[in-house]
Amino acid sequence: MIPPQIIDQISDRSSEGLALALASDEDGAIMELQWCNKAFTRITGYDNREIFGQRGTILIGTSMAQGDHLLIIEKLMNWEHFSVKVRTNRKSGEEYWQKMSWTPLSDPSTGDRWWLCSLIELDETPHNPVVHSALATTNSNQELLADYAEKIERLEKENSRLFEMAKTVAKESKEDPLTGLSNRRHFEVELKSWIQKLQNGGTEFAVFYVDLDRFKSVNDTLGHDAGDRLLLSVAKMLRRLTGETDLIARIGGDEFVILRPLGNSALDISSLADAIVQEMHAPFAFEGKSTFCSASVGVAIATAGMDIPEQVVTDADMALYHAKTNGRGRWSFFTEEMHADALATKRLVSDLLIACEKREFVPYFQPLIDASTGKIVSAEVLVRWAHPKMGLLPPGAFLETAASMGILKRIDEITFSTLPETLGAFDKAGIDLPRISINVSAGRLADPTLIHDIKRSGIAPERLTIEILESVYLERIGDVVHWTLGELKELGVTIALDDFGTGHASVQGLLKINPTILKIDRQFIQPIVEDETSRALVHSIIGIGKSLGMRIVAEGVETEQHALFAGRMGCDYLQGFHFGKPVSASDLQQKLLETNGQFWFPAETDIATLRPELPC
Question: Hey, how many other C-beta atoms are within 10 angstroms of the C-beta on 371?
């Protein structure tokens, strides 16, 4: 399409023959005619369809003198503005004389270079055919023609070499060098073309976004040569499963995109997605070693009714994310619910960044109760987000997104910074809150500044417990984390391992950390009243902890019976809704004033009368 900036520079209401040619940046003599007016077709005898895409040499007839031909080429190669009176031929072969003028143009928005060619048919043979140049006026003679011929011959050889090089560069600019598929740049150009055709009444199409699930693992375990071999294998598979009308591109390390026109049946789309997923379930072998690398696929449809058709690739990416979060090795269609979820996540991300700036995170407190006395021994700090519009939000509403954003450390820092003032207020009011515990994310635990922040806070180390989630994969802790834990213990800070039993930490990891407190996850405590197997499992966990000298916390204590059973089985501390939900600092202060820290009165009755099967 001729840019409007170029069209605006010329007028088609001229008796002169006018044409526009898109030229090579490196060589003005290399061009393709893109447009002409009616006068141009009348003079040359060619119609628009015959002229479009042709080289400028279509204007060089057999009757044109060699000297004139060579001179025109030189002027074009040097991007000179010039005019020349020459004899040439129409399409029919008829000879005629014309005045040919060439004017270089440029498109400032794209940097493309163009030629404006003007033809005026002369009624009679000129006595002195001359070339008028912006730089000089050239007179033809034999000596000059010989010089031109030698120079042009040399330049034409160089031009041929550059032309071949340009073809190679053009090919490489479109192809992924490893797989030979389209690269990202070519895909984006083609996508625009497909969308333009769609908007002009063309065929609707599907976008398949393919991502390999364990590609990094292949590189890490078998090496990058194996990774390259896998990518080539995937490219070959995609070529085999697709047709000539489909476009396949590799747009990232292990990301592929397919454009496919919609057929008469939806099976054309679902069958391809099924086939890709199934093919990738097969093991991948390299130099006698095998591994598995499944693929997830997201599919979205570009339809004529879409407000923003360019959104279709983002839609396919959302569907891909949905497939991955639901187990990987599968495919998913884009739905409007995904779009709504994506918008909600986008708003959440934006709000979280603002929340960090405005320090909107506040601590809430849940008591830990001594199983033998019923008095408070500690309060766990649980973060809440005081959202200005949605109110107080629990961790489940934002922590996963915060983790994906990499801002958990910042939230930890904000929450921790409020604790010295809170403890000071309790102490000033004469309220006994012996200790507080705070969860620390993996990133914060690996941050050496944690020790500095604790020292600077003014909180007495003996009043502080750091809780570490089992899901931090403690058996794989690095040197920095190991050093941090050692420093915390030397300071006198208590280490607790939270959610024990949820499947990540091993006994070996437990020995490596050697926490003072072991918290049994609520999913094991909940069934102990009714289920004998659950009681036996909890009894075993308590035995492991006790044998290592640890104190045991039962999480998820929601009823009197939960509390009695956990206490009788050997848990030192109890935590759960039976003693109250997490509350603000002021509410906890009020509760402690009212109860003097007595949250529960352990029953006198022997719990064995309630459940005789309880293991002792």
Answer: 24
Q: Which long-range contacts (CB under 8 A, 24 or more apart) does 138-141 make?
A: 138/71, 140/67, 140/68, 140/71
DSSP letter, residue 613: T
575-602 core/surface letters (b: 16 or more CB in 10 A; e: else): bbebbeebbebeebbebbeeeebebbeb
**Residue 83 CB: number of other CB atoms within 10 A?**
17
Q: Read off the tokens for 14.
A: 């001229």
3-state secondary structure (DSSP) of residue 375: strand
- According to DSSP, the residues that pair with 260 across neighbouring strands are 206
Q: Which amino acid is at 11?
A: S
Task: Provide the mean pLDDT of the chain.
Answer: 84
Torsion, Cα 592 593 597 599, to 10 degrees, reads: -70
Say how far apart CA 395 and CA 304 lie, in whole Å. Answer: 42
Residue 462 CA to residue 406 CA, distance in Å, equals: 30
- Reported as a single tens digit per residue, the pLDDT across 492-523 is 999 998 877 665 555 666 777 889 999 998 99
Helix or strand holding residue 526 (H, E) = none
Catalytic residues: 254
The answer to whether 539 touches 615, Cβ cutoff 8 Å, is yes
Cα angle 96, 99, 101 (rounded to 5 degrees) comes to 140
Question: What b/e sequence results for 140-159 when a residue is b if at least 16 CB atoms lie within 10 Å of its CB, and e otherwise?
Answer: eeeeebeebeeebeebeeeb
Which tens digits make up the pLDDT trace of 288-338? 777 888 999 999 999 887 878 788 998 999 899 889 888 889 999 988 787
